[in-house]
C-alpha cells in the first residue's frame, strides 16, 4: 500500500481541515380551504429542493411516485450502525446482498442483479465502466443521509441503464450549527476503524466533510483440525474521504462542489474446495470523484438542476501462481473513467400540470494493461439520454403521469450503435392524505457493458440492448403505521450471457429471457 494510506494520523489531520383504483372524491367544504391547502403544499415542496436529489420523494402518500421506493433516512442509519452501503441495503424489502469472488458486495432487486441496476451517489452515476458493476462496500455509511431504492417503473428522468431498478445515495449536507463527530472501534485480528464527520456554515458558504479509515488483518474460519484459523489473504485496508462545499447566492439558487477519494488494498481468499484455486490480490483499488453543479429558479416555481461529473478508477490486480503468493504470474491494471453532465428541468405549466425534462451525456473510457510491460488497450463509448414527463392532476384525487425517454449509445468501432425508446405511463389515486393507490407500466433498457462488447477473448460489438417491461400496482397508507405493498410483473428479453462455440471458445450473445412476478 502507498505511504499515504499507511499514514493514518496525517490523513485524519487533513480530513479535519476539510472540516386498483377506486372512484371517489373527498372535496373540502370551502374553496378557501382548498386554496390554503394548495398554498401550504407548494410551500412544502419548495422547501425540500436540494441539489443532490433527482426527484423529490416523500413518505406522504401524495408524494409517492409511480414506482415502489424504499427510503432509509439518517435516523434509521444511526440505529443500524452500518459499516457501508451493503449493511444499509440488506434491510430493504425485495433486496438481496451478494458476495462475489473479487470480494465485491453486489445487490439484487426483485431478482435482478447489480449489472442491471444503477447506483447514484448524490445523483451522479457510480460504476466501474468496463465491467459495468459497482461495489457497495466502497460507499461508506458514515457520510450517508438518505438512501432511496426504486423498484418497478421508475421515472424516465433517471437516464439509461435502470432496467432492474436504481439506488440513489444522498450524502450528508451541512448543518446550521458547527458540528464535529469522531468515532472509533477495535476488534479481533487488529481490526480497527477511525471516523470523522464535520460540518460548518459561514454566511452564504457551507462545508460538510467525512473521513473513514478501516484496517484489518483478516477473519477466522472454522477448521475441523485446528479450530479457528485466520483466513489467508483476507486482510484489507481502506480510506474513504468526501467533502462538499456549498454557495447559496439566493434562496432560489444553490451551487455545490463535491470531491471524494476511496483508496484500498485487499486480498481475496482462495476457494477452499476447488481444484483450480485463484490466488489474487488487489494492491490498489482506488476511485476518485469530482462533480459540480446546483439548482436555480427559472422563474416562478420552475427550477433547473444541473451537474458535471468525473469519476476515475485505477485498479491493479496481482495474480500469483502459488498458494504462498510469492511467485507473481501477472499484474493487470485498469485505468478507467466516466465523465459527463446532466440537466433536469421542472416547469409547472398551470395549477394542475407540470412538465419535467432531463438531458444527460456521459463518456466511458477504459484503458487496460493485461500485464506489466505490455501495451495498453483503449476503448471508449458515449451515452446520450433525453427524457420528458407530464404530470397532470385531473382532480385533487386523480393524477395521470406519462413519460418517454430516448437513450442512445455511440459504440467504440466497429460496433453498431443502439437506440432505445422507453415509455412510462401511470395513474395515481389519492382519496385522502393518508392513502394512495397507483398503477403503472414502463419499458426499460440497459446497454451492453464494455467488457461484453470489446473483450479480446469473448467480446461481441454487435450486441443489442437488454430490455424489459414492468407493470406494478401498489398502495401506501400512512396512518398510525406506515404500510406499503405492491404486486409486480416483469418481463425481460435479450439478456446478455456467454455461449460456448464449437471451437471451445466463449462469446457474448443476446440469449437470455426472464419472467419475474411477485408481491
Give a verbal description of the structure.
The chain is mostly beta strands and 519 residues long. The protein has a domain at 20-170: Ferric Hydroxamate Uptake Protein, Chain A, domain 1, CATH 2.170.130.10. It is built from 6 helices and 25 strands. It has helices at residues 3-6, 8-17, 31-47, 74-80, 85-89, 450-454, and strands spanning 68-72, 95-99, 105-109, 118-121, 124-125, 144-151, 166-171, 179-187, 191-202, 205-216, 220-223, 227-230, 236-250, 253-268, 279-299, 302-320, 328-348, 353-369, 377-393, 398-410, 418-432, 435-446, 466-478, 482-500, 506-518. The strands form 4 sheets. It has a 16-stranded antiparallel β-sheet. Strand 21 and strand 22 (435-446) form a beta hairpin. It starts with a helix and ends with a strand. The model is unreliable at 1-34 and 42-47 (pLDDT under 50).
Question: Which properties best describe this structure?
Answer:
519 residues, mainly beta, Ferric Hydroxamate Uptake Protein, Chain A, domain 1, 16-stranded antiparallel β-sheet, five-stranded mixed β-sheet, 9% helix
